[in-house]
Protein backbone atom coordinates (compact mmCIF):
# COMPACT_ATOMS: atom_id res chain seq x y z
CA UNK A 1 0.00 0.00 0.00
CA UNK A 2 2.74 2.48 0.88
CA UNK A 3 4.47 1.49 -2.38
CA UNK A 4 1.32 2.51 -4.21
CA UNK A 5 1.26 5.88 -2.46
CA UNK A 6 4.95 6.46 -3.26
CA UNK A 7 4.28 5.55 -6.90
CA UNK A 8 1.40 8.04 -6.95
CA UNK A 9 3.63 10.78 -5.56
CA UNK A 10 6.45 9.97 -8.00
CA UNK A 11 4.00 10.18 -10.91
CA UNK A 12 2.87 13.59 -9.64
CA UNK A 13 6.43 14.88 -9.29
CA UNK A 14 7.48 13.59 -12.73
CA UNK A 15 4.43 15.17 -14.36
CA UNK A 16 5.07 18.45 -12.53
CA UNK A 17 8.72 18.63 -13.62
CA UNK A 18 7.81 17.82 -17.23
CA UNK A 19 5.05 20.45 -17.32
CA UNK A 20 7.33 23.09 -15.78
CA UNK A 21 10.05 22.35 -18.34
CA UNK A 22 7.58 22.54 -21.24
CA UNK A 23 5.96 25.73 -19.92
CA UNK A 24 9.36 27.40 -19.75
CA UNK A 25 11.06 26.11 -22.89
CA UNK A 26 8.35 25.18 -25.41
CA UNK A 27 9.01 27.13 -28.59
CA UNK A 28 5.32 27.49 -29.35
CA UNK A 29 3.63 30.19 -27.31
CA UNK A 30 0.15 28.70 -27.06
CA UNK A 31 1.56 25.31 -26.14
CA UNK A 32 3.63 26.90 -23.35
CA UNK A 33 0.53 28.63 -21.96
CA UNK A 34 -1.53 25.43 -21.93
CA UNK A 35 1.36 23.59 -20.28
CA UNK A 36 1.41 26.30 -17.62
CA UNK A 37 -2.33 25.86 -17.00
CA UNK A 38 -1.87 22.10 -16.60
CA UNK A 39 1.10 22.83 -14.31
CA UNK A 40 -1.26 24.77 -12.03
CA UNK A 41 -3.67 21.82 -11.88
CA UNK A 42 -0.93 19.30 -10.99
CA UNK A 43 0.59 21.77 -8.52
CA UNK A 44 -2.76 21.95 -6.70
CA UNK A 45 -2.72 18.13 -6.45
CA UNK A 46 0.80 18.31 -5.01
CA UNK A 47 -0.35 20.81 -2.36
CA UNK A 48 -3.16 18.41 -1.47
CA UNK A 49 -0.59 15.61 -1.00
CA UNK A 50 1.45 17.98 1.21
CA UNK A 51 -1.65 18.52 3.40
CA UNK A 52 -1.79 22.23 2.55
CA UNK A 53 -5.44 22.48 1.55
CA UNK A 54 -5.61 26.28 1.76
CA UNK A 55 -2.75 26.63 -0.70
CA UNK A 56 -4.34 23.96 -2.91
CA UNK A 57 -7.55 26.00 -3.02
CA UNK A 58 -5.66 29.19 -3.83
CA UNK A 59 -3.52 27.44 -6.45
CA UNK A 60 -6.58 25.89 -8.11
CA UNK A 61 -8.40 29.23 -8.21
CA UNK A 62 -5.56 31.66 -8.95
CA UNK A 63 -2.75 29.58 -10.47
CA UNK A 64 -4.72 27.23 -12.68
CA UNK A 65 -7.82 29.32 -13.32
CA UNK A 66 -7.35 33.07 -13.36
CA UNK A 67 -3.70 33.16 -14.45
CA UNK A 68 -4.53 30.79 -17.31
CA UNK A 69 -7.34 33.11 -18.41
CA UNK A 70 -5.02 36.14 -18.17
CA UNK A 71 -2.30 34.41 -20.19
CA UNK A 72 -4.77 33.27 -22.88
CA UNK A 73 -6.09 36.82 -23.15
CA UNK A 74 -2.53 38.17 -23.39
CA UNK A 75 -1.85 35.62 -26.12
CA UNK A 76 -4.83 36.96 -28.07
CA UNK A 77 -3.35 40.49 -27.85
CA UNK A 78 0.14 39.57 -28.98
CA UNK A 79 1.00 40.16 -32.63
CA UNK A 80 0.46 37.01 -34.66
CA UNK A 81 3.92 37.01 -36.18
CA UNK A 82 7.20 37.59 -34.42
CA UNK A 83 7.56 34.47 -32.35
CA UNK A 84 10.49 34.22 -30.03
CA UNK A 85 12.96 36.85 -29.04
CA UNK A 86 16.42 36.52 -30.57
CA UNK A 87 19.36 35.07 -28.68
CA UNK A 88 21.25 37.07 -26.06
CA UNK A 89 23.46 39.84 -27.32
CA UNK A 90 27.15 39.79 -26.37
CA UNK A 91 26.73 42.74 -24.00
CA UNK A 92 23.88 40.97 -22.19
CA UNK A 93 25.81 37.79 -21.40
CA UNK A 94 27.67 39.04 -18.28
CA UNK A 95 24.40 40.41 -16.90
CA UNK A 96 22.62 37.10 -17.50
CA UNK A 97 25.48 35.23 -15.83
CA UNK A 98 25.40 37.65 -12.90
CA UNK A 99 21.63 37.24 -12.50
CA UNK A 100 21.89 33.44 -12.69
CA UNK A 101 24.71 33.22 -10.14
CA UNK A 102 22.89 35.61 -7.79
CA UNK A 103 19.74 33.51 -8.04
CA UNK A 104 21.75 30.35 -7.36
CA UNK A 105 23.47 31.90 -4.33
CA UNK A 106 20.18 33.23 -2.97
CA UNK A 107 18.58 29.79 -3.37
CA UNK A 108 21.48 28.14 -1.52
CA UNK A 109 21.33 30.74 1.26
CA UNK A 110 17.56 30.31 1.60
CA UNK A 111 17.91 26.52 1.70
CA UNK A 112 20.53 26.85 4.43
CA UNK A 113 18.34 29.23 6.44
CA UNK A 114 15.35 26.93 6.03
CA UNK A 115 17.51 24.05 7.32
CA UNK A 116 18.46 26.11 10.38
CA UNK A 117 14.85 27.01 11.27
CA UNK A 118 13.83 25.91 14.76
CA UNK A 119 11.78 22.71 14.85
CA UNK A 120 8.85 22.13 15.31
CA UNK A 121 8.16 25.65 14.08
CA UNK A 122 5.37 27.97 15.19
CA UNK A 123 2.48 25.50 15.24
CA UNK A 124 2.26 25.37 19.03
CA UNK A 125 2.29 29.17 19.70
CA UNK A 126 -0.32 29.63 16.94
CA UNK A 127 -2.54 26.94 18.44
CA UNK A 128 -2.26 28.76 21.79
CA UNK A 129 -3.19 32.12 20.22
CA UNK A 130 -6.10 30.66 18.23
CA UNK A 131 -8.85 31.24 20.87
CA UNK A 132 -7.96 34.96 20.91
CA UNK A 133 -8.13 35.36 17.14
CA UNK A 134 -11.89 35.08 16.60
CA UNK A 135 -11.74 32.17 14.12
CA UNK A 136 -11.10 28.48 14.60
CA UNK A 137 -9.08 27.82 11.43
CA UNK A 138 -5.37 28.44 11.92
CA UNK A 139 -4.60 29.68 8.37
CA UNK A 140 -7.37 32.29 8.44
CA UNK A 141 -6.24 33.35 11.92
CA UNK A 142 -2.70 33.89 10.62
CA UNK A 143 -3.75 35.66 7.41
CA UNK A 144 -6.27 38.06 8.95
CA UNK A 145 -5.28 38.49 12.56
CA UNK A 146 -1.85 37.27 13.66
CA UNK A 147 -0.04 38.35 10.48
CA UNK A 148 -2.68 40.68 9.04
CA UNK A 149 0.04 43.18 8.07
CA UNK A 150 1.25 40.81 5.31
CA UNK A 151 -2.24 40.39 3.89
CA UNK A 152 -2.82 44.16 4.01
CA UNK A 153 0.33 44.71 1.98
CA UNK A 154 -0.61 41.95 -0.50
CA UNK A 155 -3.91 43.70 -1.24
CA UNK A 156 -2.06 47.01 -1.55
CA UNK A 157 0.33 45.41 -4.08
CA UNK A 158 -2.60 44.16 -6.18
CA UNK A 159 -4.22 47.62 -6.11
CA UNK A 160 -0.91 49.14 -7.21
CA UNK A 161 -0.91 46.67 -10.10
CA UNK A 162 -4.33 47.93 -11.21
CA UNK A 163 -3.06 51.53 -11.02
CA UNK A 164 -0.07 50.58 -13.17
CA UNK A 165 -2.21 48.82 -15.79
CA UNK A 166 -4.56 51.81 -15.92
CA UNK A 167 -1.75 54.31 -16.23
CA UNK A 168 0.09 52.29 -18.88
CA UNK A 169 -2.79 51.39 -21.17
CA UNK A 170 -3.43 54.12 -23.69
CA UNK A 171 -6.91 52.91 -24.52
CA UNK A 172 -9.17 50.01 -23.77
CA UNK A 173 -9.27 48.08 -27.03
CA UNK A 174 -12.86 47.17 -27.87
CA UNK A 175 -12.59 43.55 -27.09
CA UNK A 176 -15.62 41.81 -28.52
CA UNK A 177 -15.33 38.12 -29.40
CA UNK A 178 -13.83 37.55 -32.81
CA UNK A 179 -16.88 35.62 -33.96
CA UNK A 180 -20.48 35.60 -32.83
CA UNK A 181 -20.91 32.85 -30.26
CA UNK A 182 -24.61 32.46 -29.44
CA UNK A 183 -23.91 29.80 -26.82
CA UNK A 184 -21.76 32.06 -24.67
CA UNK A 185 -24.47 34.33 -23.14
CA UNK A 186 -26.58 31.25 -22.42
CA UNK A 187 -23.64 29.49 -20.77
CA UNK A 188 -22.91 32.63 -18.74
CA UNK A 189 -26.51 32.92 -17.58
CA UNK A 190 -26.50 29.27 -16.58
CA UNK A 191 -23.12 29.22 -14.82
CA UNK A 192 -22.75 32.65 -13.24
CA UNK A 193 -25.04 31.99 -10.24
CA UNK A 194 -22.59 29.24 -9.26
CA UNK A 195 -19.75 31.74 -9.45
CA UNK A 196 -21.63 33.82 -6.84
CA UNK A 197 -22.69 30.91 -4.64
CA UNK A 198 -19.29 29.22 -4.38
CA UNK A 199 -17.38 32.38 -3.24
CA UNK A 200 -20.05 33.02 -0.59
CA UNK A 201 -19.60 29.43 0.60
CA UNK A 202 -15.79 29.75 0.62
CA UNK A 203 -15.98 32.99 2.61
CA UNK A 204 -18.30 31.48 5.20
CA UNK A 205 -16.15 28.35 5.41
CA UNK A 206 -12.95 30.32 5.86
CA UNK A 207 -13.59 30.91 9.57
CA UNK A 208 -13.42 27.21 10.47
CA UNK A 209 -11.98 25.29 7.48
CA UNK A 210 -9.86 25.85 4.33
CA UNK A 211 -11.33 28.72 2.32
CA UNK A 212 -11.19 32.45 2.79
CA UNK A 213 -10.88 35.70 0.90
CA UNK A 214 -8.28 34.85 -1.75
CA UNK A 215 -9.89 31.72 -3.27
CA UNK A 216 -13.32 33.35 -2.94
CA UNK A 217 -12.12 36.50 -4.68
CA UNK A 218 -10.44 34.49 -7.43
CA UNK A 219 -13.56 32.42 -8.16
CA UNK A 220 -15.70 35.58 -8.12
CA UNK A 221 -13.21 37.21 -10.49
CA UNK A 222 -13.29 34.19 -12.81
CA UNK A 223 -17.08 34.52 -12.94
CA UNK A 224 -16.56 38.19 -13.73
CA UNK A 225 -14.22 37.24 -16.57
CA UNK A 226 -17.01 35.04 -17.93
CA UNK A 227 -19.35 38.07 -17.79
CA UNK A 228 -16.74 40.23 -19.53
CA UNK A 229 -16.42 37.61 -22.28
CA UNK A 230 -20.18 37.61 -22.81
CA UNK A 231 -20.25 41.43 -22.75
CA UNK A 232 -22.67 41.38 -19.81
CA UNK A 233 -21.03 44.14 -17.74
CA UNK A 234 -22.01 47.43 -19.40
CA UNK A 235 -22.12 49.27 -16.05
CA UNK A 236 -18.35 48.99 -15.74
CA UNK A 237 -17.88 51.24 -18.76
CA UNK A 238 -20.46 53.90 -17.86
CA UNK A 239 -18.77 57.16 -16.81
CA UNK A 240 -21.23 57.81 -13.98
CA UNK A 241 -20.46 54.44 -12.37
CA UNK A 242 -16.71 55.03 -12.28
CA UNK A 243 -16.66 56.32 -8.66
CA UNK A 244 -18.49 53.15 -7.58
CA UNK A 245 -16.02 50.96 -9.46
CA UNK A 246 -13.07 52.73 -7.84
CA UNK A 247 -14.67 52.51 -4.40
CA UNK A 248 -15.23 48.76 -4.80
CA UNK A 249 -11.67 48.27 -6.08
CA UNK A 250 -10.30 49.98 -2.98
CA UNK A 251 -12.90 48.60 -0.52
CA UNK A 252 -10.74 45.74 0.75
CA UNK A 253 -7.74 47.96 1.42
CA UNK A 254 -9.84 50.76 2.94
CA UNK A 255 -11.73 48.49 5.33
CA UNK A 256 -8.49 46.75 6.28
CA UNK A 257 -6.87 50.12 7.05
CA UNK A 258 -9.95 51.22 9.02
CA UNK A 259 -9.73 48.04 11.10
CA UNK A 260 -6.00 48.59 11.63
CA UNK A 261 -6.56 52.19 12.81
CA UNK A 262 -9.53 51.12 14.94
CA UNK A 263 -7.26 48.59 16.61
CA UNK A 264 -4.75 51.38 17.24
CA UNK A 265 -7.46 53.49 18.93
CA UNK A 266 -9.05 50.67 20.95
CA UNK A 267 -6.05 48.66 22.09
CA UNK A 268 -3.08 50.91 21.37
CA UNK A 269 -1.57 48.46 18.87
CA UNK A 270 -1.76 48.85 15.08
CA UNK A 271 -3.88 46.02 13.56
CA UNK A 272 -4.76 44.47 16.93
CA UNK A 273 -8.39 43.28 16.81
CA UNK A 274 -10.15 42.95 20.19
CA UNK A 275 -11.03 39.28 20.71
CA UNK A 276 -14.71 40.00 21.46
CA UNK A 277 -15.42 41.36 17.97
CA UNK A 278 -12.67 39.63 16.00
CA UNK A 279 -14.92 37.05 14.32
CA UNK A 280 -17.29 39.60 12.78
CA UNK A 281 -14.50 42.02 11.88
CA UNK A 282 -12.56 39.28 10.09
CA UNK A 283 -15.64 38.21 8.12
CA UNK A 284 -16.32 41.82 7.08
CA UNK A 285 -12.70 42.38 6.01
CA UNK A 286 -12.70 39.09 4.11
CA UNK A 287 -15.91 39.98 2.27
CA UNK A 288 -14.59 43.39 1.23
CA UNK A 289 -11.21 41.90 0.27
CA UNK A 290 -12.85 39.17 -1.84
CA UNK A 291 -14.94 41.78 -3.72
CA UNK A 292 -11.86 43.92 -4.31
CA UNK A 293 -9.72 40.97 -5.41
CA UNK A 294 -12.41 39.86 -7.88
CA UNK A 295 -12.66 43.35 -9.39
CA UNK A 296 -8.86 43.71 -9.52
CA UNK A 297 -8.54 40.44 -11.43
CA UNK A 298 -11.25 41.62 -13.83
CA UNK A 299 -9.40 44.93 -14.21
CA UNK A 300 -6.20 43.03 -15.09
CA UNK A 301 -8.19 41.02 -17.60
CA UNK A 302 -9.74 44.11 -19.21
CA UNK A 303 -6.23 45.54 -19.50
CA UNK A 304 -7.16 49.18 -19.53
CA UNK A 305 -9.18 51.79 -17.71
CA UNK A 306 -12.89 51.36 -18.38
CA UNK A 307 -15.06 54.37 -19.03
CA UNK A 308 -12.56 56.07 -21.30
CA UNK B 1 -6.18 0.88 -0.53
CA UNK B 2 -8.70 0.72 -3.34
CA UNK B 3 -9.11 4.48 -3.75
CA UNK B 4 -5.37 5.11 -4.07
CA UNK B 5 -5.08 2.45 -6.78
CA UNK B 6 -7.87 4.00 -8.85
CA UNK B 7 -6.38 7.48 -8.29
CA UNK B 8 -2.98 6.29 -9.52
CA UNK B 9 -4.64 4.76 -12.59
CA UNK B 10 -6.38 8.07 -13.34
CA UNK B 11 -3.09 9.88 -12.92
CA UNK B 12 -1.48 7.55 -15.48
CA UNK B 13 -4.42 8.38 -17.74
CA UNK B 14 -3.62 12.07 -17.34
CA UNK B 15 -0.05 11.18 -18.36
CA UNK B 16 -1.41 10.17 -21.78
CA UNK B 17 -2.99 13.62 -21.97
CA UNK B 18 0.48 15.07 -21.25
CA UNK B 19 1.73 13.42 -24.41
CA UNK B 20 -1.17 14.91 -26.39
CA UNK B 21 -0.45 18.28 -24.81
CA UNK B 22 3.12 18.10 -26.03
CA UNK B 23 2.39 16.75 -29.50
CA UNK B 24 -0.69 18.78 -30.46
CA UNK B 25 -0.89 19.19 -33.40
CA UNK B 26 -3.69 21.81 -33.26
CA UNK B 27 -4.33 24.24 -30.42
CA UNK B 28 -7.78 22.69 -29.88
CA UNK B 29 -6.06 19.32 -29.27
CA UNK B 30 -3.86 20.93 -26.64
CA UNK B 31 -6.77 22.66 -24.92
CA UNK B 32 -8.79 19.44 -24.82
CA UNK B 33 -5.77 17.61 -23.38
CA UNK B 34 -5.58 20.24 -20.63
CA UNK B 35 -9.30 19.76 -19.97
CA UNK B 36 -8.73 15.99 -19.75
CA UNK B 37 -6.05 16.61 -17.14
CA UNK B 38 -8.50 18.87 -15.31
CA UNK B 39 -11.23 16.21 -15.32
CA UNK B 40 -8.77 13.53 -14.18
CA UNK B 41 -7.59 15.82 -11.39
CA UNK B 42 -11.20 16.31 -10.25
CA UNK B 43 -11.71 12.54 -10.11
CA UNK B 44 -8.39 12.06 -8.29
CA UNK B 45 -9.35 14.74 -5.77
CA UNK B 46 -12.75 13.18 -5.08
CA UNK B 47 -11.17 9.72 -4.65
CA UNK B 48 -8.47 11.10 -2.33
CA UNK B 49 -11.13 12.99 -0.40
CA UNK B 50 -12.90 9.70 0.33
CA UNK B 51 -9.71 7.69 0.80
CA UNK B 52 -8.08 10.15 3.21
CA UNK B 53 -11.41 11.13 4.85
CA UNK B 54 -10.85 14.80 3.99
CA UNK B 55 -14.16 16.29 2.83
CA UNK B 56 -12.48 19.64 2.14
CA UNK B 57 -10.99 18.13 -1.04
CA UNK B 58 -14.48 18.29 -2.57
CA UNK B 59 -14.16 22.10 -2.42
CA UNK B 60 -10.91 21.99 -4.40
CA UNK B 61 -12.60 19.71 -6.97
CA UNK B 62 -15.52 22.15 -7.17
CA UNK B 63 -13.17 25.05 -7.95
CA UNK B 64 -11.38 22.94 -10.60
CA UNK B 65 -14.71 22.21 -12.29
CA UNK B 66 -15.86 25.84 -12.26
CA UNK B 67 -12.59 27.24 -13.59
CA UNK B 68 -12.32 24.64 -16.35
CA UNK B 69 -15.46 26.19 -17.85
CA UNK B 70 -13.87 29.66 -17.74
CA UNK B 71 -10.68 28.38 -19.36
CA UNK B 72 -12.59 26.78 -22.23
CA UNK B 73 -14.75 29.88 -22.78
CA UNK B 74 -11.58 31.98 -22.82
CA UNK B 75 -9.88 29.71 -25.29
CA UNK B 76 -12.81 29.68 -27.70
CA UNK B 77 -13.45 33.43 -27.63
CA UNK B 78 -9.96 34.82 -27.24
CA UNK B 79 -7.56 32.42 -28.88
CA UNK B 80 -9.16 29.89 -31.14
CA UNK B 81 -11.44 32.19 -33.15
CA UNK B 82 -8.69 34.80 -33.44
CA UNK B 83 -6.27 32.23 -34.80
CA UNK B 84 -8.85 31.10 -37.33
CA UNK B 85 -9.81 34.61 -38.42
CA UNK B 86 -6.32 35.68 -39.32
CA UNK B 87 -5.57 33.99 -42.58
CA UNK B 88 -1.85 34.64 -42.26
CA UNK B 89 -1.86 32.71 -39.06
CA UNK B 90 -3.80 29.73 -40.28
CA UNK B 91 -0.82 27.51 -39.83
CA UNK B 92 -0.62 28.17 -36.12
CA UNK B 93 -4.28 27.36 -35.63
CA UNK B 94 -4.30 24.37 -37.90
CA UNK B 95 -1.06 22.63 -37.41
CA UNK B 96 1.00 23.82 -34.54
Helix content of chain A: over 70%
Note the total helix count of chain B: 4
Strand content of chain B: under 5%
Total number of helical segments of chain A? 11
Taking all Cα atoms into account, the compactness measure Rg of chain B is 16 Å
Order of helices and strands of chain A: HHHHHHHHHHH
Q: Structural class given helices, strands, pairing of chain B?
A: mainly alpha
What does this structure look like?
The complex is a heterodimer of chains A (308) and B (96). With 308 residues, chain A is mainly alpha-helical. Helices cover 74% and strands 0% of the residues of chain A. Chain A is globular and about 60 Å long. By secondary structure, chain B is mainly alpha-helical. Chain B has one domain. Chain B is 84% helix and 0% strand. Chain B has 4 helices and no strands. In chain B, helix 1 runs antiparallel to helix 2 and helix 2 packs antiparallel against helix 3. In chain B, 45% of the residues are buried. Mean pLDDT of chain B is 80; it is low at 87-96. At the A-B interface, helix 1, helix 2, helix 3, helix 8 and helix 9 of A face helix 1, helix 2 and helix 3 of B.
